[in-house]
Amino acid sequence: MATYDPFRDLDRLAAGIFDVRRGPRRMPMDLYRDGDHYVLTADLPGIDPGSVDIDVDGQLLTIRAERTLPSGEGVKWITREREAATFLRQLNLGQGVDTDRISAAYAHGVLSVTIPVSEKAKPRKISVSTEREGEVLRAHESTDEPQPVEQ
């Protein structure tokens, strides 16, 4: 049987009054590259997927989410450690991504955002041409020897 501790309630009240983090909370996230796209995963437990808002303005990706807690009439809380909160994360994407094809999914409290690499940013081979005695030579990927090119 739990006993009533007035100091615990006083500590919780003081923490609520003096908590300077009352603004938007940060969400823990991971970001990695997998082939030709980046994957961002962020922990958002207890979030209604309908409250998740993701937008791109230029190269700035903004993720917002809100956790609301149910409160019914006549409810008497015994303990309430989970807070209603707004979560916010912003990332500068840089120039190497395709912002038109960003997609997102939410499952089991984790938001996954897939950010494709733009075609211009993908690695590619550049052919090198040289001129030798009126003949244009071009290096091919399959051999190291220059091959003549018809003009």
UniProtKB/TrEMBL annotation:
SUPFAM superfamilies recorded: HSP20-like chaperones
Superkingdom in the source lineage: Bacteria
Disordered: region residues: 120-151
Domain SHSP: 20-131
Any single Pfam family the record assigns to this protein: HSP20
Family stated for the protein in its record: Belongs to the small heat shock protein (HSP20) family.
PANTHER family on file: HEAT-SHOCK PROTEIN 20 FAMILY MEMBER
Name this polypeptide is given: Hsp20/alpha crystallin family protein
Source species taxonomy: Bacteria, Bacillati, Actinomycetota, Actinomycetes, Micrococcales
